[in-house]
Amino acid sequence: MNSILKSKEISIAMIVALLSILLTFLSPVFLTADNLLDVIKGNAVLGILAIGMTMVIITGGIDVSVAAVTSAVCVILGKIMVAMPDSPISIVLLFLIGPLLGIALGAINGVLVAKIQIPAIVVTLGMMSIINGLVLYITNGQYLNSSSFPSVFLKFSSFEVFGVSIVILMFIAVALFTWYLLKYTLIGREVMAIGGNKDSAVRVGINFDKVQIFVFSYMGFLAGIAAIAQTAYTKAVDPNGMLGLELMVIAAVVLGGANIMGGRGTIMGTILGVLLLGIVQNGLILARIDTFWQKVFTGIIILLAVSYDHIQYKRSQEKLSKIEVEA
Amino acid sequence: MNGYLLQMTNVSKTFPGVKALDDVKLEIRKGEVHALIGENGAGKSTLIKILAGIYKPDPGAKFSFEGKEAEIQKPIDATLKGISIIYQDLSLFPNLSVAENIYIGRDSNKKPWKKVSWAAMEEKAKKALKELGVEIDVHTPVEKLSIAQQQLIEIARALAFDSKLIVMDEPTSSLSAGEVEKLYKVINDLKNRGISIIFVSHKLKELFTVSDRFTILRDGKYVGTYDTEELSEDKLIQLMVGRQVLYEKNKEKIKTGKTLLEVKGLSKEGNFKDISFELKEGEVLGITGLVGSGRTELAQAIFGVNRPYDGELKINGETVVIKSSEDAVKKGVAYVPESRKTQGLVLRQSIINNISLPVLKQLRNKFKLVDRKKEVQLAKHYVETLDVRPALPERAAGDLSGGNQQKVVIGKWLSTKPKILIIDEPTNGIDIGAKSEIHKLMRKLASEGMGIIVISSELPEVLAVSDRILIMRHGRIAGEIGIGEATQENIMNYALLGPKAEGLYQEEAPA
Ligand SMILES: Nc1ncnc2c1ncn2[C@@H]1O[C@H](COP(=O)(O)OP(=O)(O)OP(=O)(O)O)[C@@H](O)[C@H]1O
Ligand SMILES: [Mg+2]
What we know:
The structure holds 2 protein chains of 2 kinds.
Chain A: H1 7-26, H2 33-42, H3 44-58, H4 66-82, H5 88-115, H6 120-139, E1 144-145, H7 151-157, E2 160-161, E3 164-165, H8 166-184, H9 186-196, H10 198-203, H11 208-234, E4 236-237, H12 245-255, H13 267-286, H14 291-320
Antiparallel strand pairs in A: 1-4, 2-3
Chain B: E1 4-15, E2 18-29, E3 33-37, H1 44-52, E4 62-65, E5 68-70, H2 75-81, E6 83-86, H3 98-103, H4 118-132, H5 147-160, E7 165-169, H6 177-192, E8 196-200, H7 204-210, E9 213-218, E10 221-227, H8 233-241, E11 259-268, E12 272-280, E13 284-289, H9 295-302, E14 310-315, E15 318-320, H10 325-330, E16 333-336, H11 340-344, H12 351-356, H13 372-385, H14 402-414, E17 420-424, H15 432-447, E18 451-455, H16 459-465, E19 468-473, E20 476-482, H17 488-497
Parallel strand pairs in B: 3-8, 3-9, 6-7, 7-8, 13-18, 13-19, 16-17, 17-18
Antiparallel strand pairs in B: 1-2, 1-4, 4-5, 9-10, 11-12, 11-14, 14-15, 19-20
Helix pairs in contact in B: 4-5
The structure holds adenosine-5'-triphosphate (ATP) and magnesium ion.
C-alpha cells in the first residue's frame, strides 16, 4: 500500500513508455513538450470523467450517461454564458452552476440505483437517452461558438502556468483531490470496501445506499467540471461533440487496471490508462493512419490488456492453492 | 447488574412464510463461552443476525446489555456496544489490506469526510494481531491469506474493537485440526480476559471442549439452557433433535460389481502425485487426510476442472479424457463441491431451478422447451429425499440455512443420475440428524449400483459410510484400509505419519 506504484500500474506505465519510445523513432515531433502537452490537453476531459468513473467502477457500478450529462451541462452553461456580464464573477458562477447541475443529475442516477435498486447500467442508459434527446430538442443540434461568450471566459480558456493550460490544471486538480478522497477519507475507504464485498460492508455498518448515491453524485460533479473544461478547450459548445465518449471513459478506467466487477482500481492507473489511449491516438495521427483505425486499435489494446490482467489474476489464484507434495 | 452481559428475551422473527424464531431467549454471562446449538434451520444464524442489528426482530423483543435496556437497530449499534460477530462466511474485504480489514466499521457513524489515519490504523492492527500471537504483515491484501488466517483477522478485528462479546458462527468448519487447536487457545485467552463468546457449531465434541453452557434451539423454538456438566452428548442430541440419533461404523456387506473408475498414476505439480486406485459398482470409497492434503484437487482433476495433469483415467474399462465439467457429467461423473456458496448454487434462484440446472436438456418437451411440471416434480423428489427444510421448492436457495443449502447442492448433482458420484465434505455444516440421513442416502445409492467417492475430514463420517478408505498425505496416498480393520486411530496414524505408520498403530477391538 505504501508504494505509490503497484505492480499493475508499473506494467501499464511500461507499455506507455515502450509506446513512447517507438513513437519517438517513428516521428521526431512526438517527443516535444508541445506535442506531449497537446496530448494531455486533448485528453483532459476524458481524464476528468475517467477519474469519476473509477470511483463508480470500484463500487461495482457503471455510468454510461457521463458523456450525455457533460453535454447537457455544456449546453446549459453555453446558454447562460451568453447572458453573463464580462467580469470574473462569471467564472465563479460557472464553477458553481456547472458542478451543481452535474451533481443533481448524478444524484438522480444514484437514488434510482440505490433506493429503487435498478441496475446501474439500466438507469444510466435511460438517463443518457433522455438527456441526449432533450439536448437535441433544445439546441436543434446547433453549434454555439466563442463569439457569443464573454471575453473573460476566453481569457480564462487560454490561461496558462508555465505553458500548462488551465484545462490540464483542472485535470491535475481533480486527480489529486480524488486520490486524496479515495485514500484518506472515510467515504473513500467505504467506496473501496463496498466494491470488495457488499455483504461484509453492510455487516460492518457501512451505509450501502449512501455510498452509492455519493459515488454517482461525485461522477455528476466531475461531469460538471468536465463540461467547463470541454467548453474552455473547444471554446464552443457542440451538442454532438461528445457522443460515444462514455465508451472511451470506461475503456480508460479498465485499461488502468480497475476491475469492472468492483473492488479494484486506482487513480494512478486510470491516469495511465488515459495517457495510453491519448498516446495511441496521437501516434496514429503522427503516423498518418486513418482515424477509423484508432477505434480498432483502441479496442485491440483494451482486449489485450484485460486478457493479460485476467490471466495474471488466475495465475496468482492458482499459486494460492498449491500444496506441498512430497517428492 | 445481574451477572448477565447480554439478555435477549421474547425474540421472534417471521420471514414471509416461515417463523424462523418463536419466542426465543438467550442469556450470556460475562466471561463465558456459550454454545448456541440446534439443527439446520433451527434459527441460530437468524438469532445472531438480530443481535448484530442486521435483521429486525418482530415487535416485543427485549434486549439488555450490561444490565441496561438496549436497542440494536443497526449494525453500528451492536459494534459500539462491543458486540462483534464473526459470520459463517466471514465478512472481510479481499481487496483491502489486513490493517484496514481489522479497523473497518469502527467509524461508520462518523462524518464521511473524516480523515483516515493509516498510521493509527496499522498500529491498532499490529497490536491486535500481536495479542493473538499471529504474525501477518498488516499491509497484505486479505485475498492473499488462507481461510484460517482470514478467520484470525476477524478475531483480531473483534479485539481491536475492544469487544465484550464475540459471536462465532461455525468458526471451525473450514479449519484444519491444527488450526482448530489454535482457535481453542485463542478462545481460552479471550475468556480469561473476561470476554464472553457465543459459539455456534455442529461439532458436538468441540462444543463440549470449549463451552461453559449451552442454549439449544429446535425449529425456531427455545428448548433450554444448560451447564455443560449437566449434559452428555446423547442428551444434547436428544434435546436438539427430539429423538435419538446413532452414528455407527458401517458394517454392511456389499456386493461390488464391475470396476467403474480406474485412476492410474495421476500427478499434478503442486497438487498430488502418483495417485492410483479403483472404484467398483456399489462401493463407497472414503478419501480422508488432513485439510490441504490434495484430496479436493484430486477430485477436481477427475471431474475435469483441475487440468492438465499426468496419468490415466479409465471409466468402464475405457481410457477417457475429461476436459470439463459438462464432459464429466456426460460420462456419468458428478462432483458435489465442498464450498456451497462459491461453487454450488445460484443463490438468487429457486430451489427448483438449482436442482434442475444440470439436467435441463433432459427435461425438454417435444417443443424443445423446458417442461416446468417435470422440473417441479424432480425438485420435489429431492427436497423430500434429502429432507430440505422448509420443504418449499419455490424458495430462493439463498434464503435457506447453511446446511439446507448443502442439501440442495447434493440434490442438484443427484439429478444427473451419475454412475460415479464424488462428494467433497458432504456434511460440512449439516446437523447431526440430517447427517445420518445423508449417510443413509449414500449407502442406498451405492446399493443401487452407484460408485461413490466421499471426501471427508470427519473420521466418524468416513467410518460410517465407507467400504474402503484411502488416506492422503502431502498429495500422495499414504495408505488404504478396508472398513473391517479401520479405526479412527489407524486412519490418523496414516494421515499424520504416512506409509511408515504401517504396524505402528494399536489394533482396537472392532467397534
Ligand atoms: N432471508 C430469509 N428469508 C426467508 N427465510 C429465511 C431467511 N433467512 C433464514 N430463513 C429461514 O429461517 C430459518 C432459520 O434459518 P437459520 O439460517 O437461522 O438457521 P441455522 O440454525 O443457522 O441453520 P444452519 O445450521 O443450517 O446454518 C430457516 O428455515 C431458513 O430457511
Ligand atoms: Mg447458520
